[in-house]
Amino acid sequence: MMNNKGLHMTPAPTKTLHKPPGAKKRIAKDSQYAPNSHQEKEVINKLTMARVRMLLNHPFFGNLVTRLVLTDASTWCHTLATDGKYLYFNAEFVNSLSDGEVIFGLAHEVGHCIYDHMSRREDRNPAYFNMAGDYIINYQLVQHNVGERITKVKILYDAKYDDKWTTEEVYDDIKDKQPKCETWDQHLDGEGGFGDGEGEGE
Fold it and tell me: Compositional bias of type Basic residues: which residue ranges (predicted)?
């Protein structure tokens, strides 16, 4: 968001009910975290600039991504992940992406929070529900030109699964038709998205 003093980034929350092992470095606007390597400095700058660009060019996603606490989880996270409170990242993976791909990745994680994918799975097959969630999110990002599709990993996208579909409907459609595959990001259990996510709402 903008004010007469320039760009203001809302401080991220600092508490969570779920923190996977190995996630020790929390990076928030008001923290005293000091990167201890050149790579860490690069990735923090890259993520910070991506969030600024999202606030300017995609304010809906930009505002929401600033609510997630950036967390270096390189010891266990291979790409990106979120539990609705923290945004976990692998420093090497982030540094391998273009600026546009970083924006796509951050917006993708925000999408899991918006659609409350962390708490909607219930007793459904985790692999297929994760796939269904990715189809829903990636369609929206592509349609609204949010960043650039990541090319280093497989991104699930099919124009068939447009905004008329819910995650549950995509799940029912693919579970007997497609082989299971791992999604590019890691899907974690958590308290749901931002505290008020209601899903697609169709």
Answer: 16-27
Q: Find the Cα–Cα–Cα–Cα dihedral 14, 18, 22, 28, rounded to 10°.
A: -20
**Complete DSSP assignment for the chain:** -EETTEE--PPPP---S---TT--EEE-TT------SHHHHHHHHHHHHHHHHHHHH-HHHHHHHTTSEEEE-TTT-SSEEE-SSEEEE-HHHHHTS-HHHHHHHHHHHHHHHHTTHHHH-TTS-HHHHHHHHHHHHHHHHHHTT-S---SSS-----TTS-TT--HHHHHHHHTTTS-----SSEE---S-STTT------
Residues in contact with 130: Cβ distance below 8 Å, sequence separation at least 6, in sequence order: 117, 183, 187
Instruction: Please give the mean pLDDT across all residues of the chain.
Output: 81
- Read off the pLDDT of residues 149-172 as tens digits, 9 standing for 90 and up: 999 999 999 999 999 999 999 999
- Token output for 25: 């470095």
pTM: 0.78
By mean pLDDT, which of 37-41, 71-75, 132-136, 191-195 is the weakest? 191-195
- How many Cβ atoms from other residues are within 10 Å of residue 71's Cβ? 27
